[in-house]
UniProtKB/TrEMBL annotation:
<dbReference type="InterPro" id="IPR051677">
    <property type="entry name" value="AfsR-DnrI-RedD_regulator"/>
</dbReference>
<feature type="transmembrane region" description="Helical">
    <location>
        <begin position="316"/>
        <end position="336"/>
    </location>
</feature>
<keyword id="KW-0804">Transcription</keyword>
<dbReference type="InterPro" id="IPR005158">
    <property type="entry name" value="BTAD"/>
</dbReference>
<keyword id="KW-0238">DNA-binding</keyword>
<dbReference type="InterPro" id="IPR001867">
    <property type="entry name" value="OmpR/PhoB-type_DNA-bd"/>
</dbReference>
<keyword id="KW-0472">Membrane</keyword>
<keyword id="KW-1133">Transmembrane helix</keyword>
<comment type="similarity">
    <text>Belongs to the AfsR/DnrI/RedD regulatory family.</text>
</comment>
<dbReference type="Pfam" id="PF12836">
    <property type="entry name" value="HHH_3"/>
</dbReference>
<feature type="transmembrane region" description="Helical">
    <location>
        <begin position="383"/>
        <end position="405"/>
    </location>
</feature>
<feature type="DNA-binding region" description="OmpR/PhoB-type">
    <location>
        <begin position="2"/>
        <end position="106"/>
    </location>
</feature>
<protein>
    <submittedName>
        <fullName>DNA-binding SARP family transcriptional activator</fullName>
    </submittedName>
</protein>
<dbReference type="InterPro" id="IPR016032">
    <property type="entry name" value="Sig_transdc_resp-reg_C-effctor"/>
</dbReference>
<dbReference type="InterPro" id="IPR036388">
    <property type="entry name" value="WH-like_DNA-bd_sf"/>
</dbReference>
<dbReference type="GO" id="GO:0003677">
    <property type="term" value="F:DNA binding"/>
</dbReference>
<keyword id="KW-0805">Transcription regulation</keyword>
Length: 527
C-alpha cells in the first residue's frame, strides 16, 4: 500500500511504545524526537497537522529556534525509514506535505484496529452471538502492549493517553458484561479483581465484580467489594458510590439476582457529531453574568478539598516571622517550600538566591577580626550584621507577599488532575457540580479550572492572556460551531495562538454538554 509491496505492508503501534513494522520486522524510527513527530501524525491519521502544532507537541516550552526546519529534517528521516524505495526528489505519498501541514496516510494502526474490533464485538453482542463477541473484544484488548504512547510527555500526548485509557477501560467493561451474560461467573472474579486495581474509578467494573461474586455464591465477598469501593471513594475523592454500585448493593442485600450493569459503548470508529444546543434568542454562553448559581450547582460531597477562602494568615505570619526567629539563617526555608509547591523556575531561582544570601552573611560573620591578613577583618562583623538585618527585612516582606498571593501550587495541580479525572469518568456529575465554573458558589476546589463549554465569557476573560473580545469569541464559537472537545480546538478554530494556549492549558477543561432529550422519548408516567 502506498508504494509498498502487498506482502510487506506497514503497521504502526501507539498502544504501547510507538513502533512501526514492515512485514513483521520492526523498523528503527530514529531518535526520540523523530518518534514523537511520528506519534503526533499517528494521532491524526489521514489529516494534515500544521508544523507549529508538531513543534508545540514535541518541544513544549522549549521550541527550537528553527522549528519548521527541524520538523522537516525529522520528516525526511521518517520518509527514509517508512518509504525507502522512494526517490529523495519524489513527493512522498505516505508522508506528504500539504497546504494544511504534514499528513500521514497510515496503512494500519493498532488504535484503529482496536476500535474497529470493539465495534464488531458490540455488533455480535447485540445479535446474540456472545461467544464470538467475547472473542473479538478480547482480541482487541490484546493489541495493548503497555502504556499508550509510552515514554512521550507533553499536554498533547497526555490528553491522548487519557482518552485511550478511557477507551480501554470501557472495552474491559464490555468484555466483562459479555462474559457475565454467558454465565462465566467464577472465572471472571480474578480478572475483574485485577481490573478494579488497575481502574479504581470505574464503578462499572466494581459492580461487575460484585455480580460475579454473588452469582458464584460468595455474597459476603460481594458486599465486601462494595465496602471497599465506598471506603476508597470517600478517602480519595470524598464522594459516595454512584447509583449503579448502590443499586447492585441493594439487590445483593435483598438476595435478588442483580442484572449485569449495561455499559454504554460508542465505537470510536463511528463519528457522532456533537449535539447543538437549542436555539435561543441569546445563547447561555453569552448571556449577562448572574452571580446566583442554578439550584443544581450546589452539590455536596464532591471529590475535592474545601475551597480556600481568603488568606491563610497562619502561613503569612510564619513566612514573615521565620527570618527573624532564625536570625536570617532560615530566610530561605519558606522560599524553598514555595518553590516545591509551585514548581516554577522563577521560584526555584528565588529560593537559591536567598540560600546564597545566607551563605554571604555567614562569610562575613566568620571572618576573624584579629586576622592581620584580611582587609575586611575590622569591618566584617558590622557588614555581616547589616546584611543580616537587610536580609531579615527583605525575606519577611517577600515571604509574606508570596503567602498572600500563593499563585499555582502542587496542591492546586493535584486538585485539577483529580477534577479532570472525575469529569472524564462522570461527565454528568461534573457538569451538575460546576467543575470549571468559578462563577458558581461552590463548596469545593477544582484547582482553578475553567470549563470552555460552560463558563461564561466573563470568567474566560479572567484567564491571563485572554482579553474580553477573545473571551466573547470563544463563548460565541462554542454555540455556533458546537462544543469544544479539547482545549486544542481553540487553536484549530483560530481563536487563540498556540503560545497562549500552551500557557493556559493547565487551567482549561472541556466538560461535555448534556445530550438534548429526544422529542420521541417517553415522558414520566402519569400520576
Amino acid at each position: 500500500m502506498y508504494g509498498e509491496p502487498a506482502t510487506n505492508p506497514l503497521r504502526f503501534e501507539i498502544l504501547g511504545v510507538v513502533r512501526a513494522f514492515r512485514g513483521g520486522r520492526q523498523l528503527d524510527l530514529g531518535p526520540a524526537k523523530q518518534r514523537a513527530v511520528l506519534a503526533v501524525l499517528l494521532l491524526n491519521p489521514g489529516r494534515p497537522v500544521p508544523t507549529h502544532r508538531i513543534v508545540d507537541a514535541v518541544w513544549g516550552d522549549e521550541p527550537p529556534e528553527n522549528g519548521p526546519n527541524v520538523v522537516q529534517k525529522y520528516v525526511a528521516g521518517l520518509r527514509r525509514v517508512l518509504d525507502p524505495d522512494r526517490s529523495p526528489r519524489t513527493p512522498g505519498e505516505m508522508l506528504a506535505l500539504t497546504d494544511g501541514g504534514y499528513v500521514l496516510r497510515a496503512a494500519s494502526l493498532d488504535a484503529e484496529d482496536f476500535r474497529n474490533g470493539l465495534a464488531r464485538a458490540d455488533a455480535e453482542r447485540r445479535a446474540g452471538r456472545l461467544e464470538e463477541a467475547a472473542r473479538l473484544a478480547r482480541t482487541a484488548l490484546e493489541l495493548w502492549n503497555g502504556e499508550a504512547l509510552g515514554g512521550l510527555t507533553g499536554p498533547l500526548f497526555d490528553s491522548a493517553r487519557t482518552r485511550l485509557v478511557e477507551e480501554r477501560a470501557s472495552a474491559w467493561e464490555m468484555w466483562a458484561e459479555i462474559e457475565l451474560s454467558r454465565g462465566g461467573f467464577a472465572g471472571l472474579v480474578s480478572e475483574l479483581s485485577r481490573l478494579v486495581q488497575e481502574f479504581p474509578l470505574r464503578e462499572g467494573l466494581r459492580a461487575q465484580l460484585m455480580i460475579a461474586l454473588h452469582r458464584s455464591g460468595r455474597q459476603a465477598e460481594a458486599l465486601a467489594v462494595f465496602r471497599d469501593a465506598r471506603e476508597y471513594l470517600l478517602d480519595e475523592l470524598g464522594v459516595e458510590p454512584g447509583e449503579r454500585l448502590q443499586e447492585t448493593h441493594r439487590q445483593i442485600l435483598r438476595n435478588e439476582p442483580p442484572a449485569p450493569p449495561t455499559a454504554v459503548h460508542t465505537p470510536a470508529a463511528v463519528h457522532i457529531p456533537a449535539p447543538r444546543p437549542p436555539a435561543d434568542p441569546m445563547p447561555a454562553a453569552v448571556q449577562p453574568y448572574s452571580p446566583a448559581p442554578p439550584p443544581h450547582a450546589l452539590m455536596p460531597g464532591l471529590p475535592f478539598a474545601p475551597r480556600r477562602h481568603g488568606i491563610s494568615w497562619a502561613e503569612v505570619i510564619l513566612a514573615a516571622v521565620l527570618p527573624l526567629a532564625t536570625c536570617s539563617m532560615g530566610s530561605w526555608f519558606y522560599f524553598a517550600y514555595a518553590a516545591f509547591q509551585r514548581r516554577t523556575i522563577r521560584d526555584v531561582l528565588v529560593a537559591v538566591g536567598y540560600f546564597f544570601a545566607v551563605i554571604g552573611v555567614l562569610v562575613f560573620l566568620v571572618i576573624d577580626p584579629s586576622d592581620p591578613n584580611s582587609e575586611l577583618a575590622s569591618d566584617a562583623e558590622t557588614i555581616g550584621f547589616l546584611l543580616g538585618l537587610g536580609l531579615i527585612a527583605l525575606a519577611a516582606f517577600h515571604g509574606a507577599f508570596l503567602a498572600v498571593f500563593p499563585g499555582d501550587s502542587r496542591r492546586a495541580r493535584r486538585q485539577r488532575d483529580m477534577a479532570r479525572m472525575y469529569a472524564t469518568f462522570h461527565p454528568d456529575a461534573a457538569r451538575q457540580a460546576g467543575i470549571g465554573r468559578p462563577d458558581l458558589m461552590r463548596s469545593f476546589d477544582d484547582g482553578g479550572l475553567v470549563d470552555l463549554n460552560h463558563a461564561p465569557a466573563q470568567e474566560i476573560a479572567r484567564l491571563h492572556g485572554i482579553n474580553p473580545i477573545e473571551a466573547h469569541r470563544i463563548a460565541v464559537d462554542r454555540y455556533e460551531r458546537g462544543p469544544y472537545r479539547a482545549p486544542d480546538d481553540l487553536v484549530v478554530r483560530g481563536l487563540l495562538r498556540p503560545k497562549t494556549l500552551q500557557r493556559l492549558e493547565p487551567w482549561l477543561i472541556c466538560v461535555p454538554p448534556a445530550m438534548p432529550a429526544r422529542a420521541d422519548a417517553p415522558g414520566p408516567d402519569p400520576v
